Amino acid sequence: MNERDTTVYAKDDPRSSLATAPAPGPDGSAAIAAAQYVDFRQLAPADGTTAEERTAIVRAQNVILVHTEARTGDDLDNGTLDGELAVILTDDSPVISVHTAAGTTPVNDPGLVVVPPGASHLSVQGDGPVLRLIEAGEPEWRDRAANAEAYAQDHPRVAPLHRWPEPVGESAVRHYPLAKVPDDPDRFGRIFRTRAFMVNFLPPQHGPRDPRKLSPHTHDDFEQLSVAVRGSYIHHIRTPWLNDSTAWRDDEHVRLGSPSVAIIPPPAVHTSAADDPGVNQLIDIFSPPRVDFSQKPGWVLNADDYPMP
Fold first, then answer.
1. Relative to the CA of 287, which of 58, 85, 172, 201 has its CA 20 to 30 Å away?
2. What would the pLDDT profile of 148-165 be if each residue is shown by its tens digit?
3. E-only strand ranges, 139-245
4. Please, how many CA atoms are within 13 Å of residue 41, restricted to the half-sphere of its CB?
5. Is 114 within 8 Å of 177 (Cβ atoms)?
6. Is 57 exposed, middle or buried (0-12, 13-18, 19+ CB in 10 A)?
C-alpha cells in the first residue's frame, strides 16, 4: 500500500517524514468510489433492548466494523472465524472477558485486544461501546453489513487483503493497553497492527482543530476508516477529476458526531477537523496494515509480536 501527499504536512507533524514517492498504483482510469458516512446510532439505537438491537454493522472493502452499545450481561458471539478478531476498547468501554477454546481472558483497560482464529465470544461487565473488527470475507459476517450493497463488487482502486505473517509465539488472546504507551511527539498516534488490520488511537483533542493547520492528503490504494469515539468532526473530502466529467463530485464537508465512521476511498483528498468545544477523538483503521507507518521505527507499538512481510 502506498501513500502520496497532495500537500505538505506541517513541519511538526510526524507524518511529514513519510516517503512521498508512490509506487505504481491501480488503474488510473477506474472509477473513484464515493465516501460513506455512518452514524452508528441511526443504525442501532443505544436504548435497544437486546445487544443485537444495539449493534450496528458496516463494512469497507477488507474489514467489517461491528459497533455495539454494550450493557452489563451482554454476551457478544463472534462466531467461528477463519482470521483474527480485533476488539477496540476506549475510555468509555466496559470491562469484557474474552472466551475461547483455550479459556477466559479478562480485559480491564482501554486498548486493542486481538483474538486468535476460531470460536469466541465476549461477556460484558458494565455499559459502553465495544467495537469489533472482522475480515470482510468471513462467511458468517460478510452479508450482514448495512452498506453491503456498496461492496457488491470489489472496488478496483483498493488493494486486496493478504494477511501479514503469523504472530510470534503461541496462539493466544493479546491485549495492548493504552495506559502503557508513553507520549512521544515524534510518533503519530498510538498504532497497533494485526495480520489484517492497523488501528491508530489518535490522542484526544480538546476543542476544535485550528482551521489553519489541517492536513489534506491522499492514499493511492487503501481506504481509511475514521471512527469518531468522542466529540464531532467535519470530514472534508475532495474527489479528483477523471476524464468522465459526469462522474465528478462536489467537495464534501460532512459533520458527524460520535459514535460514527467516515469511510474514505482512494484517491480522495481528505482531512478531518474536530469541531466540538469539548473532547474530540478519532480512531483510524486500515486494512491491510499500512507499510509506510510500519517502516517508521517505533511507530507500531506491537511490531515485535506482528512482523512485516
1. 172
2. 999 999 999 999 999 999
3. 174-177, 190-193, 198-201, 205-206, 218-219, 224-230, 233-238
4. 12
5. no
6. buried
The three cell numbers of residue 278 are 469539548
Tell me the one-letter amino acid at 102: A
Q: Note the pLDDT of residue 14.
A: 77
Look up residue 1 and give its amino acid.
Answer: M
Residue 176: name the closest of 29, 303, 30, 11 by CA.
303
Average pLDDT on 287-309 reads 97
How far are the Cα atoms of 42, 50, 52, 150, 260 from residue 46, in angstroms, in the given order? 9, 10, 11, 25, 13
Residue 97: the pLDDT is 98
Supply 49's cell numbers: 433492548
Summarize pLDDT for 46-70 with one digit per residue, the tens. Answer: 999 999 999 999 999 999 999 999 9
Give Cβ neighbours of residue 170 (< 8 Å, ≥ 6 apart): none
Q: pLDDT tier at 5 (50, 70, 90 boundaries)?
A: very low
Strands 118-125 and 111-115: unpaired
DSSP 8-state secondary structure symbol assigned to residue 22: P
User: Residues 115-140: pLDDT tens digits?
Assistant: 999 999 999 999 999 999 999 999 99
- Identify which of 162, 142, 138, 145 has the alpha carbon closest to the alpha carbon of residue 82: 138
The three three-digit cell numbers of residue 187, written as one number: 510518533
**How many CA atoms lie within 13 Å of 21's alpha carbon, on the beta-carbon side?**
0
In 3-state terms, what secondary structure has residue 32? coil
Kindly tell me the sign of the dihedral angle through the C-alpha atoms of 286, 287, 289, 292.
negative
Distance from C-alpha of 242 to C-alpha of 97, rounded to nearest angstrom: 49
Give dist(CA 133, CA 283) in Å, integer: 13
Q: How far, in Å, are 9, 186, 235, 273 from residue 213 at the CA level?
A: 9, 17, 14, 9
